Amino acid sequence: MRTGIRGFRKSLWSAVRLRCPRCGVAPLFRGFFSMYPECLSCNLRFEREQGYFVGAIYINYAATAIITIAGYVWLDYFANLSLARQLIVWIAFGVCFPLFFFRYARSLWLSIDHMVDPQNGPWDRT
After folding, report:
1. Residue 29 near residue 101, CB atoms below 8 Å
2. I need a labelling partner for 72 at 20 to 30 A (CA). Which of 2, 95, 102, 114 fits?
3. Residue 122 has pLDDT above 70, yes or no
4. What 8-state DSSP symbol labels residue 18?
């Protein structure tokens, strides 16, 4: 079990590298959007139940909203772009960024969940 600041940093580092939150070795994704059902190294099951990754959707939405709002305010203050140009920039960002961040949101969700509840249920093979 990962505890404390060191465990938090290790879990976060695994999430950024898109690796298993338990062992940090095996990749989470086999393609851009498709995940392995379980870790190839330590057999950690990634999706505990149906709808498990709804939390990842919230992480993705929050990151997109925070960056969009902060970016709008920053560009409005420093670049003085018109509202039409701002809308074009931030609508395009709001469509593209969640697609890019999808894998990282899932990885972060897995890491957070593994820090909070390292036991993976009755199907856990460790």
Report:
1. no
2. 102
3. no
4. T
